[in-house]
TrEMBL record:
[4Fe-4S] cluster 2 binds at residues 172, 176, 179. [4Fe-4S] cluster 1 binds at residues 40, 76, 105. Signal peptide: none annotated. Its EC number is 2.8.4.4. PANTHER family: RIBOSOMAL PROTEIN S12 METHYLTHIOTRANSFERASE RIMO, RIBOSOMAL PROTEIN US12 METHYLTHIOTRANSFERASE RIMO. The gene is rimO. Pfam families: Radical_SAM, TRAM_2, UPF0004. This is Ribosomal protein uS12 methylthiotransferase RimO. NCBIfam families: 30S ribosomal protein S12 methylthiotransferase RimO, MiaB/RimO family radical SAM methylthiotransferase.
Length: 459
């Protein structure tokens, strides 16, 4: 493979928007808006918020260019390849529709966008919801109508009804050298716990049965509050979310010491907190981590992992890594492979290092040649796949609860507590499944395992 597979890329263009976003008819005489959303789940949440606001104002939502009076392109600027993809998407929207408003991470560089596409109507940056709405109002003004449709209870969501992303904070106080997110999104700003809980409760009341907690740095939630009482507010928030009755899954957690306090709750099936941690380790060699300027670079991660597994033997660990970071020697890379052997992570994604305009890592010496990066990526993925397959094989014969994502003629596609939507594997029930429906949680016994997926029968 020439590059990271799309399902492992944080700059992944998210086709679900176009695929799953059905037509929402506008209120009387109101215009219709199209949305193309690129990038990570955090950008997806932004798109949902924008559409929810537009919907509340009576705008219609169109899944295609031809039915839209204007199109919003929510861009990603994480990697140079993502920027190119964003420019392409803007170009396509201009050709197909002609009235285009750009927002999102790449919107932080308006000259870059207007230089390539001078015809765009407006450019706004990430989370500038008000500015996006102002741009939409200017481009296609709403017709004043006191009888606009009421906002559905859970707003407009671009994820299936039974799971939803829940963004708890924005921005980041770290300065990883390969990352420009703090420049684009600013310093950490945590949402008040009450607001997060209110949103979570509304989602649950509207039928959501799995909450995917996201942010740039979930473990740091609340540490920006000046008057905070708790040292690590994420602990209280996670516990409180767990009381709702939905599955609660934590993404983007850094291995700070207080994470250990979450693990006993994950081991308790009644807590609602899934035994699942998505921790972006990025590398294992201390020198590479230092050159990356990673948070918790000095953490003894193997000891931490062993302690987590001691307290919660069923915990699923997912992570992402970068290979071919500037200065990465064969010895450093080998340390990463050895670490992976020992850590036995359940799920991993791997990126080949790429320069990103504005990132400090660009200026580091000893960039790794492309063929070496490719070769290391292949070695890494081979090992990761073997580990994943062995860990899944060990689940054969086990009983577990799974959540149903969809049902068709051939099988019910489900996920275990160890599988996040979109990025992890599936569990298929291919007998006695016709009465199942999305969002249901059922008990199964696993009878077969593949490299990434499982098959099971109902109990
Ligand atoms: S922790 Fe590092 S990689 Fe993650 S958003 Fe912050 S600076 Fe970027």
């Amino acid at each position: 493979m020439a590059q990271n597979p799309p399902d492992l890329r944080p700059d992944l263009s998210n086709p679900r928007l176009e695929r799953d976003l059905g037509t929402v008819r506008p209120g009387r005489n109101q215009p219709t808006i199209g949305m193309v959303s690129l990038g990570c789940p955090k950008a997806l949440v932004d798109s949902e918020r924008i559409l929810t606001r537009l919907r509340a104002e009576g705008y219609g939502i169109s899944p295609d260019y031809s039915g839209a009076d204007a199109v919003i392109v929510n861009t990603c600027g994480f990697l140079d390849s993502a920027k190119a993809e964003s420019l392409d998407a803007i170009g396509e929207a201009l050709t197909e529709n002609g009235r285009v408003i750009v927002t999102g991470c790449l919107g932080a560089e308006p000259d870059y966008i207007t230089g390539a596409h001078p015809r765009v109507l407006a450019v706004t940056g990430p989370h500038q919801y008000e500015q996006v709405l102002d741009a939409v109002h200017a481009a296609v003004p709403p017709d004043p109508d006191p009888f606009v449709d009421l906002l559905p209870a859970r707003g407009v969501s671009l994820t299936p009804r039974h799971y939803s992303y829940l963004k708890i904070s924005e921005g980041c106080n770290h300065k990883c050298k390969f990352c420009i997110i703090p420049d684009m999104r600013g310093r950490l700003q945590s949402r008040p716990a009450k607001a997060v809980m209110r949103e979570a409760e509304k989602l649950f009341e509207a039928g959501v049965r799995e909450l995917l907690v996201i942010s740039q740095d979930t473990s740091a939630y609340g540490t920006d509050w000046k008057d905070r009482e708790a040292k690590a507010p994420i602990l209280d928030l996670a516990r409180e979310l767990g009381t709702l009755g939905a599955w609660v899954r934590l993404h983007y957690v850094y291995p700070y010491p207080h994470v250990r306090e979450l693990i006993p709750h994950m081991a308790d099936p009644a807590s609602g907190l899934l035994p699942y941690l998505d921790i972006p380790f990025q590398h294992a060699h201390p020198d590479t981590l230092r050159r990356m300027a990673r948070p918790a670079a000095a953490a003894r991660t193997l000891d931490e992992i062993a302690a987590w597994r001691r307290d919660c033997p069923d915990i699923t660990l997912r992570s992402t890594f970068i290979v071919g970071y500037p200065g990465e020697t064969e010895e450093e890379f080998q340390t990463l492979l050895d670490w992976l052997d020992e850590a036995q992570l359940d799920r991993v994604g791997c990126f080949q290092y790429e320069n990103v305009e504005g990132a400090r890592s660009n200026a580091l010496p000893d960039h790794v040649p492309a063929p070496v990066k490719q070769e290391r990526w292949e070695r890494f993925m081979e090992k990761a796949q073997a580990i994943s397959a062995a860990r899944l094989e060990a689940k054969v014969g086990k009983r577990m609860q799974v959540i149903v994502d969809s049902v068709d003629d051939e099988a019910a596609t489900c996920r275990t507590m160890g599988d996040a939507p979109e990025i992890d594997g599936h569990l298929y029930i291919d007998e006695n499944f016709a009465d199942l429906s999305a969002g249901q949680v059922v008990e199964v016994e696993v009878d077969e395992a593949g490299d990434y997926d499982l098959w099971a029968r109902r109990l």
